[in-house]
Amino acid sequence: MTGHGIGRRIHEAPEVPNVYVPGLAQRLHSGLVITIGTIISAGTGDVEAADDGWTVRTADGRRSAHAEHTIVITDEDPIVLTR
Asked: 38-42, long-range: CB within 8 Å, 24+ apart, which pairs?
């Protein structure tokens, strides 16, 4: 589960991990539009995928939520489109 680039399609490169991944530094450039996501769980961080191939649940069945913001990278400050 990651954030991602967004443009002509809803999921595009680059992947933007929800956690720190050593060695995966990526330079973001002006004009790039990305999403960043946060996952909050009342229980475990372990997840299981449902048979529909889309739904993901926490392994312990506790409540969880996922939220994304869409951000435009500029030469100055980033612009948060979903604030």
From this structure: 38/66, 38/67, 38/68, 39/1, 39/64, 39/65, 39/66, 40/64, 40/65, 40/66, 40/67
